[in-house]
Design goal:
Elements: H1 2-12, H2 18-27, H3 40-47, E1 71-75, H4 83-92, E2 98-102, H5 104-108, E3 130-132, H6 139-154, E4 179-181, E5 184-186, E6 194-195, E7 200-201
Parallel strand pairs: 1-2, 2-3
Antiparallel strand pairs: 4-5, 6-7
Helix pairs in contact: 2-6, 3-6
């Protein structure tokens, strides 16, 4: 009997780290929010269909509620009217949560950058983990961004200075929802996320 139990343990017991198990679970079960804005959303939908099958990488179902999702794919043009709604949806998502900015419009305003009604990048208000250039990006680009996000999650440490944002009590989980004022959206940007003087997003998610 003793020999039998020893053989069972050899086949069924593995040794690993807590960081590896937690990161493996998070990266393998990312649930995107059912949310699209413009033409990039058509490419996002195509990525979930049989030809590309994003479910192979862990995004099995797009959730109908932000309270059930941990990934928001900002796919398309973000107008100033929609910007508060995007921030509100992000705030309603539980931690840990991630953002992919899909397409030139979501990153910088794209061909509508100089228009009065288009936001020049959603990273002015919420932290973006992966940017996808293109107009519109193909489904392969979204899959590549998804795998890039998984690698980023896999490399995170649960302790120390390099721990992710949701494990750092000094960093915010929710961000102020902009409102329309006398001069457009107020605040014009979230200084905790976007650095106007450099024009680069502040990476608060390590």
């Amino acid at each position: 009997m003793g020999s039998f139990l020893q053989n069972q343990f050899e086949r069924n017991v593995i040794t690993t780290s807590v960081d590896y198990v937690f990161n493996w679970a998070r990266k393998s079960a990312l649930w995107p929010l059912t949310f699209g804005l413009a033409c990039c959303a058509i490419e996002m939908i195509a990525t979930t269909m049989a030809r590309y099958d994003l479910a192979r990488f862990g995004a099995e179902v797009f959730r109908p509620s932000p309270r059930q999702a941990d990934l928001i794919i900002v796919s398309g043009t973000v107008t100033r009217k929609m910007a508060p709604q995007v921030v509100r949806l992000y705030n309603q998502m539980p931690e840990p949560k991630y953002v992919i900015a899909m397409g030139a419009c979501a990153i910088s305003g794209g061909p509508f950058r100089d228009g009065y009604n288009v936001l020049k990048g959603i990273d002015r208000y919420i932290p973006v983990d992966v940017h996808i250039p293109g107009c519109p990006p193909r489904p392969e680009a979204l899959i590549h961004a998804f795998v890039t996000l998984q690698k980023k999650i896999d490399e995170q440490a649960l302790r120390g200075e390099s721990r992710p944002r949701h494990l750092n009590a000094d960093l915010p989980s929710e961000f102020p929802v902009p409102e329309f004022g006398a001069h457009g959206l107020e605040p014009a940007q979230n200084d905790n996320v976007f650095l106007e003087e450099t024009g680069n997003p502040l990476r608060i998610l390590q």
